[in-house]
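Good day; I would like, with your permission, to put a structural problem before you. What I wish to show you is a protein chain and, alongside it, a tokenised description of its three-dimensional fold. Thank you for your consideration; the sequence and its tokens are set out here:
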Amino acid sequence: MTADSKSLTIGPGSEVQMHFTLSLRDGTVADTTRGGEPLRFVMGDGTLIEGLELALYGLREGERQCLTIGPRDAFGFPEEDNLHTLPRSEFPADIELEVGQIIGFSTPSGEEVPGAIMELKDDEVVVDFNHPLAGHEIVFEVEILEIAPAKQEPGRAATTAGRQDTEQSRKPGPGDE
């Protein structure tokens, strides 16, 4: 950290290194970098969900925050169209299927998407392709470790006005005063 690094704030195109813990409102931890390598990304590169990215704007190096993000700005709401009933014959015969199991499915473009088995019928399997955190308010505890200014023009920029349109709240993180 340099002498003037405390004056750096996260903005469009900033290179950021941070630790985070992602949890549900009930305290269930869904993901964390604590105990491992911090997350490195460039603001606007699509690494983060938009609601979290917008909440990070203006934070300073060394700052800790507890950010609550509503479903609309996090992973969206579950959509009925993302529930699909597939013939059991489309699954390999040697795979033991269980309700709650998450399986990777290939899209026509070759991308792999996860699907959760919701129901097993005699000849059919109901699969949910909604994001597992869809419909949930989420809590991100972040610690900004390092910020480097933008090296090039970012792909998209957020404004303070854009931040006001999101379902989120910000509270000091553990150790902040």
